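Problem statement: downstream parser choked on a complex file, so we are re-checking the raw output for the flavin-adenine dinucleotide run. The parser issue turned out to be on our end (a line-ending mismatch), but while we're here, posting the original submission so the record is complete.
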Amino acid sequence: MKADNAPLVIVGAGHAGGRAALTLREEGYGGRLILIGDEVHPPYERPPLSKGLLQGTAELSGYSLCDSARFAELDIEHWAGNPVESLDPQRHRLQLADGRGLHYARLLLATGGRARRLTSVPERLANVLYLRTHDEALRLRASLQPGKRLVVIGGGFIGLEVAATARALGCTVIVLEAGPRLAGRVLPERLSHELLALHRSQGVDVRLDVAIEAVQGDTRAESVQLVDGALLPCDLVVVGIGMQPNIELAASAGLAVGQGIRVDAQLRTSAPDIFAAGDVCEFRLHPEGVFQRQETWRNAENQGRHAALNLLGHELPFEVIPGFWSDQYDWGLQTVGLISDTQPTASRPLANGGFLMFYLDAERRLQGACGWGQGNSVAKDIKLCERLIANRSCLALDALADADVSLKQLLRT
Ligand SMILES: Cc1cc2nc3c(=O)[nH]c(=O)nc-3n(C[C@H](O)[C@H](O)[C@H](O)COP(=O)(O)OP(=O)(O)OC[C@H]3O[C@@H](n4cnc5c(N)ncnc54)[C@H](O)[C@@H]3O)c2cc1C
């Protein structure tokens, strides 16, 4: 039963949850609003954790969505360091770790995820680190001292960004990847090759197709033993093998879950007054598409906003073009739309060894694009690609491949 005058409640004070809270106020919601988080910090964006924060060029205040003074001004109650332990959708009730119970009118679950653990590595090894939270990033930053021997387990984005930063800080770095190429789960082959060449040119010892036998040491990892017999002495191990969505609260409440909390087109879960957003949300990009999760800044931002509107009763379908980026050394990659693992339909060279790749459907409409270039140089082109995707007009392959034909021009034609 729904309590009268009960608040809107958001569980998970990360990017999606924080964005939803701020949007609710921007949209004029004047009722009681409670944002509950298990971390002690105000909501913050995570991309700087593997980049600027480790390099010492960014601090929490620079990437927080909101500070406590602003929360007070907006009359948003931020209950920090207090995990929600159980949820009763029938009674519209939450139970918190500190013993408090709370009724809600409508609820948003934005519980994100945690770093996936490598079960073969004993938890007692103090110098085996994971990276998901600000506090974990601070611990890692303190350990990345010049001359330290770092072994990164996992050749995905987080592992590679840590490797790049660690090289810049003067560490020796080995990256161990179980698959045949870097970031192979999400990137086309050509970008994996570029990343491999870049890291090797920066002195990272990247090993592909490797299996780990054991991480050795009593209280600290001293070496990593590979199945092929290689023994890699180390001062520090960073495990970056992906993210584990925090679905347990929803699952034990009886909500439909798959690899994430399942939602319909309006981001509503199987319980009518409960929505989900961000990394934990399993949704369909198209009505006939498969359920998927997206672990990206852009998705957290968009779904956080969107869920807020639907908490207010707007009933809007979530229809956006996905995308993500990664920065490593002086290079950046960006994607927009749907990138398939097949060969791109067309590609065009950019200055200084960069390029764009385009993925078109059978009618030659752009579905997705990715770019690789120095610094932030591909950002403008990727923005134009997003507009080309939204336009759904048919494109000429030779024009796409021709660096002398501006994408702006294609947009006009
Ligand atoms: C190191 C790092 C670098 C990244 N870099 C990029 C990048 O370059 N580009 C890009 O596109 N994306 C990047 N991402 C991904 C992006 O940051 C995430 O997709 C985004 O943070 C997801 O936001 P979220 O709100 O869904 O989840 P989160 O930010 O994880 O927030 C969820 C919050 O809910 C809390 N919570 C969980 N359960 C409970 C509970 N029961 N009670 C209370 N609170 C709970 C969690 O502790 C957490 O604070 C990066 C992520 C990481 C970790």
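For whoever reads this later: The chain has three domains: 8-114+244-311, 117-239, 330-412.
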